[in-house]
Automatic annotation (TrEMBL):
Pfam families from the UniProt entry: Competence, DUF4131, Lactamase_B
Location of this chain's protein in the cell: Cell membrane
Keywords on record: Cell membrane, Membrane, Transmembrane, Transmembrane helix
CDD domains: ComA-like_MBL-fold
Main location class: membrane
Transmembrane segments: 44-63, 222-243, 255-276, 282-298, 305-323, 329-349, 361-380, 392-410, 417-435, 447-468
Membrane topology value: Multi-pass membrane protein
Full protein name: DNA internalization-related competence protein ComEC/Rec2
Lineage: superkingdom: Bacteria
InterPro entries: ComA-like_MBL (IPR035681), ComEC_N (IPR004477), Competence_ComEC/Rec2 (IPR004797), Competence_DNA_uptake (IPR052159), DUF4131 (IPR025405), Metallo-B-lactamas (IPR001279), RibonucZ/Hydroxyglut_hydro (IPR036866)
């Protein structure tokens, strides 16, 4: 039985690792093969094939519902109903629309939209809007959040921006009730923690600040403020043990069997809490797992603890095969598997304190290879933070916050209880913030698949019962994670990464023993690509420190991420063409034309205009030469500064040219392109940006100059090795079936 369930789960989960979906002519024989294997009594192989087929068919149907390419970037009038809880922050309302009606064919059934300076929206309302729609698209870097996988897992077929709209119908039903409850909770006096109270009641975390999320991430406690399996399990456990305790003390009615009642009450409470939280995918997963576990406890306990885990895993994947695209799916089932391994089959009873501490450190250790494989930061303060926070949130805050919500109908009573919850949450964040400062998270990267498998096997050995021999061998098997093999360029060569930061710029130049960052990525409102993209990508590439951060000028699309990078790497030196406009904390020096130095056989040279009159004209230009191959990084210089650069006598010839100002029409003059004579052009810009970069005239001039273009908006982060005269590679060339792929080379 377990073998068959495992085979089915493996087939369903394999979807996550496919570079492309098999076409229908292959899927049909695969289904036939499954039927044939079943008739031959090879049930495990048959179930594996059926699971894979079901996952591929489901994913293919969802992909077919995405916005067609020919409609990408166009504006449409459409009608739809607001689902979920709209989130408002930084002057933009973000919401999802379903039940779409439009005169145009091909509009997806579910959209995620943003409305800048838009009116307040409520769940359940029906709106008619004019929206510019885009195919699902995200930034692709050595390490960043996979937005496209997230959109597909939520079955969102397009994103977009609302230009205008009108409300057609008011909201109604459960969604509106939850929205009004959120509004009331958000207005509470709760020691500044009304946002956290709201997150725990209705699952809306938009009221938490970016600092709050940083603290939760750095201490590995995000799961405590996002309603998921932790909260569902805690509430169900409290209800279950309440009935069990009453039965043990003889306070439960004798004619009423306590076990079925305890299971029914636990499941009912979990479903009620899940409904209150909007019944999102993590909550659905937790409720499904809980239902299977309770059924196992009620009728099938004699079949062993592996059965409910596999049943729940298959149930979740059969209902939603795309759940495997989300890291939370792997972490939740991984945590359950680790705890099952640690606590099942042990002789004797452990104290509650022993059990709690063991659960924390074993979960952290057991999930380590999975966290590394998923590219997630590992919080070494997590065991201690969770040791304090899990019982605090689970047994003090969550019961009180739900009780206070129920008592809101009683004047002053509910508010008083929630005020007490806010006080506790304030204290919790103070403690977690202190822990986060003591031990920052580790962002691993650069480990091979073999190293991860070896480390996983070592952790499995360490988690085995203490009496088994050879357990110390597990520590030796963890060494690949502790001592990663150095991966640096050879002397005389340089690795270049043009990160995919949207409408902005950030380029990493790495030599054998040094690293330079040219520009830091944009910051727009609360979205800081320096913190969310550049820092984790540098860490994933094994960069421990920056010798120089060179900020071409002070505009936010080039220098916005600099403070976050300064906090993470503390560069030895910061230089800019416009230091007076940068934060004082950066201590930036002025870019001096003609400054030149060598790192590990690689020559780097700076240049800056003599009398710039605008911010863009102050851009510090960097020339990198390795093994006779040159790269020219130009910031946002315009035609006037290009002419001055040509006349300066600086040797301009380069094989690689970063098109000035993201390909703006005001730059990349024909004279400049001819003077550089680059074989390859690099464009860093955001897809469907409001500036029209790169301009068609610039693209035409580049083609006339014989230049082959690489574009981050089409190819993701771009990598090349300077000094080897090779080709550039875009990360989108690493195929994933959910990833929108267009080869932008050679425009």
């Amino acid at each position: 039985m377990l073998k068959k369930l495992f085979a089915l789960a493996a087939g369903l989960a394999l979807l996550r690792f496919l570079p492309a979906l098999p076409p229908l002519p292959i899927l049909l024989p695969l289904v036939g093969l499954a039927v044939g294997l079943g008739l031959m009594q090879r049930e495990a192989l048959a179930l594996f094939c059926l699971g894979l087929s079901w996952g591929c068919v489901t994913a293919g149907q969802v992909l077919e519902q995405q916005l067609p390419r020919e409609l990408d970037g166009r504006t449409f009038w459409l009608e739809g109903r607001v689902v979920g809880l709209p989130a408002q922050g930084s002057g933009v309302v973000r919401f999802e629309l379903e039940d779409i009606r439009s005169r145009h064919a091909g509009i997806p059934p579910r959209l995620r939209l943003g409305w800048y300076d838009g009116p307040p929206l409520q769940a359940g309302e029906r709106w008619r809007v004019a929206a510019t729609l885009k195919r699902p698209h995200g930034l692709i870097n050595p390490q960043s959040f996979d937005y496209e996988a997230w959109l597909l897992a939520r079955r969102i077929g397009a994103t977009g921006t609302v230009k205008a709209g009108e409300r057609l119908e008011s909201g109604s039903g459960a969604g509106l009730w939850r929205d009004r409850l959120r509004t009331r909770l958000a207005g509470l006096e709760a020691h500044g923690r009304a946002g956290a109270v709201t997150a725990l009641v209705v699952g809306d975390g938009s009221g938490l600040s970016s600092r709050d999320w940083d603290i939760l991430r750095d201490t590995g406690t995000v799961h405590l403020l996002v309603i998921s399996g932790t909260h569902i399990s805690i509430l169900a456990g409290l209800l279950y043990f309440l009935v069990q305790g009453l039965a043990r003390r003889g306070l439960w009615p004798r004619g009423l069997p306590w076990l079925p009642c305890a299971c029914a009450l636990a499941l009912s409470g979990a479903l009620g809490y899940g409904w209150l939280a909007g019944f999102e995918v993590p909550v659905q997963r937790a409720c499904a797992m809980l239902a299977v576990v309770l059924l196992w406890r009620l009728r099938f306990r004699h079949l062993g603890v592996g059965l409910p885990i596999l049943l729940a895993l298959n149930l979740v994947l059969l209902v939603e095969p795309l759940a495997s695209l989300q890291p939370g799916f792997w972490l939740s089932f991984g945590a359950v598997a680790v705890l099952t391994l640690v606590f099942s089959g042990r002789l004797g009873a452990w104290s509650w304190w022993h059990s709690l501490t063991r659960a924390q450190w074993t979960t952290t250790l057991g999930l380590l290879p999975l966290m590394v494989a998923l590219g997630l930061p590992v919080a070494f303060s997590g065991p201690l933070a969770n040791l304090l926070a899990v019982p605090w949130v689970g047994f003090a805050i969550v019961p009180l916050v739900l009780l206070g919500t129920l008592l809101l109908a009683v004047p002053l009573v509910g508010e008083a209880v929630l005020w007490l919850c806010g006080l506790q949450l304030h204290g919790l964040f103070l403690v977690l913030g202190w822990l986060a400062e003591q031990q920052p998270p580790w962002s691993p990267g650069g480990f091979s698949t073999g190293a991860l498998l070896l480390a996983g096997a070592g952790i499995l050995v360490l988690l085995l019962p203490a009496g088994l021999p050879m357990r110390p061998l597990g520590l030796a098997m963890l060494l690949p994670l502790c001592l990663p093999a150095p991966d640096t360029p050879d002397d005389g060569t340089a690795r270049i990464w043009i990160f995919d930061v949207g409408q902005g710029l950030s380029v990493m130049v790495q030599t054998a023993r040094h690293a330079l960052l040219y520009d830091a990525g944009p910051r727009f409102g609360d979205f800081d690509t320096g913190e969310r993209v550049v820092v984790p990508s540098l860490q994933a590439l094994g960069i421990k420190r920056l010798d120089l951060m060179l900020l071409s000028h002070a505009d936010l699309d080039h220098a916005g991420g600099a403070p976050a990078i300064m906090r993470a790497f503390g560069p030895l030196r910061t230089v800019s063409g416009e230091p007076e406009r940068l934060p004082v904390a950066l201590q930036a020096e002025t870019c001096e034309a003609g400054e030149s130095w060598a790192w590990d056989g690689v020559r780097l040279t700076l240049w800056r205009a003599s009398a710039p009159v605008s911010s863009n004209q102050t851009s510090c230009v960097l020339i990198v030469e390795a093994g006779g191959e040159r790269l020219l990084l130009t910031g946002d210089i315009d035609r006037q500064i290009e002419a001055e650069l040509i006349a300066s006598g600086v040797t301009l010839g380069a094989r690689w040219l970063l098109l000035p100002h993201h390909g703006s029409r005001s730059s990349s003059s024909a004279a400049f392109l001819d003077g550089v004579g680059a074989a390859f052009g690099l464009v860093s810009r955001g897809r469907h940006n409001n500036f029209g970069h790169p301009h068609p005239d610039v693209l035409a001039r580049a083609r006339d100059a014989g230049m082959h273009l690489h574009d981050t908006a089409l190819e993701g982060a771009i990598y090349l090795e300077l000094g080897r005269f090779g080709k550039a590679t875009g990360l989108r060339q690493t195929r994933r079936f959910w990833r929108d792929f267009e080869n932008g080379s050679g425009q």
